[in-house]
Amino acid sequence: MLRLSMAAFAVSLGLATGVAAQGALSVQGLGFPPGQMSTRAEGSGGSTSDFDPLSPINPASLSTVGLTSLFLQYAPEFRKVNAGSGSANTTTARFPIFGAVLPLGGSWTGGFSASTFLDRSFETRSQRTEIVGGPDDVVEVTERLRVLGAINDLRIGMAWASGPRLRIGAGAHLFTGRNRLTLDEIYSDSVRNTSNTQQSLVSYSGFAGSVGVSYHPSRVIGFALSGRKGGELRARSGDTAVAEATIPDRVSAGVTYEGITGATLSARVSREAWSSLEGLSGSGDVFDGWDSSVGAEVSGPRIMQRVVTLRAGGRYRTLPFGFDGARVRETAFMAGFGAPLTRNRATLDFAVQRAARSSAGGVDERGFIFSFGLRVSP
What residue segments make up the domains of the chain, in order of their start? Predict the structure, then answer.
């Protein structure tokens, strides 16, 4: 019982215990960062994130919406992990972004969003034998570890626009979430042995602030810069504080070029100080990360009197939580489209992402992420 309690407590705090225990390279430590990018931004590799009002990254971009808008994103991931001669397939369903944008009249726009900052959901099984009586009294035990949890970013933002050239914004962030862990020991001989179940629940809370600016010196080129300053992030088990860290600081910059008729080229680079989460992860395998992307949007075919926008892009980044002391690197290629609906009062976006993740020790991971985004203007 003591061994089970200690294992549950350790995993619930996010200890990086290895790819076999975590189920995938991408959910080591406190979990996988989806990126907080809308489906539209993902279609072009994430390169337009600092200009995209549906991505809760640069609050200055809120002023580009124009109409009251509600939006929702659904993004299931199908991944395969290869380790030596073995492999495992997993599926994760995510709703990474939900939000609303409201023009307030004049030059002001407000917005609210709820997005997934770190996702940590997986299930693993392992089998072992255990001596329960004499040396000949051996029973087979199945251990099942289930973790369901995430840390979410709730943002309230405000933006001010001085015409089409200059936009400035600021945001206040509440980071909240929890990890629920269930550890089962199931005995093959359930008549003579009682199966055990251990549960642990850890909750998280913290605050941060963000600022951003976008500037278009001419019609064909635009620049954007945004940053987040993190405050304290605490983990609690019931009423007891068990660990604390700092929400990672982030700075990002983007550029767009629209000098080609019917096309927009874009690029973005971001740096996030993930190592500030080391106090919560319980492991030294936490690395600051760079995130870079390039992409393009072009006007596609006209279907039912509506122009469909086509998108494509690529992205390279390092994930925050490493494996076996080494970084986990991700390279992704993305493509998608956007189609206006109902007299342009709604937009449906779709993106598909092929991600390859690798680290030391001969372990690699391949994933397909399908992203569906819907924006509606009532």
Answer: 2-376
Exposure of 11 by Cβ count < 10 A (0-12 exposed, 13-18 middle, 19+ buried)? buried
Q: Could you please state the CATH topology (level 3) that the domain comprising 2-376 is classified under.
A: Porin (2.40.160)
Question: So what's the pLDDT on residue 11?
Answer: 39
Mean pLDDT of the chain: 86
Which tens digit of pLDDT belongs to each residue from 110-168? 999 999 999 988 777 777 776 666 666 677 777 777 788 899 999 999 999 988 899 99
Other C-beta atoms within 10 Å of 349: how many? 24
Instruction: Quote the distance between the C-alpha of residue 230 and its chain's center.
Output: 17
- CB burial readout 262-279, b (16+ within 10 A) else e: eebbbbbbbbbbbbbbbe
Give the tens place of pLDDT for each residue, 328-360. Answer: 999 999 999 999 998 778 999 999 999 999 887
The pTM of the full predicted model, rounded to 2 decimals, is 0.84
Q: What is the pLDDT of residues 127-143, one digit of tens each?
A: 777 666 666 667 777 77
Q: Which of 84, 15, 22, 25 is nearest to 328 (CA)?
A: 25
3-state secondary structure the chain: CHHHHHHHHHHHCCCCCCHHHHCCHHHCCCCECCCCCCHHHHHCCCCCHHHCCCCCCCHHHHHHCCCCEEEEEECCEEEEEEECCEEEEEEECCCCEEEEEEEEECCEEEEEEEEEEEECCEEEEEEEEEECCCCCCEEEEEEEEEEEEEEEEEEEEEEEEECCCEEEEEEEEEEEEEEEEEEEEEECCCCCCCCEEEEEEEEEEEEEEEEEEEECCCCCEEEEEEEEEEEEEEEEECCEEEEEEECCCEEEEEEEECCCCCEEEEEEEEEECHHHHHHHHCCCCECCEEEEEEEEEEEEEEECCEEEEEEEEEEEEEEEEEECCEEEEEEEEEEEEEEEECCCCEEEEEEEEEEEEECCCCEEEEEEEEEEEEEECC
Range 182-198 average pLDDT: 71
Q: Taking 90 as the threshold, does the pLDDT of residue 256 lie above it?
A: yes
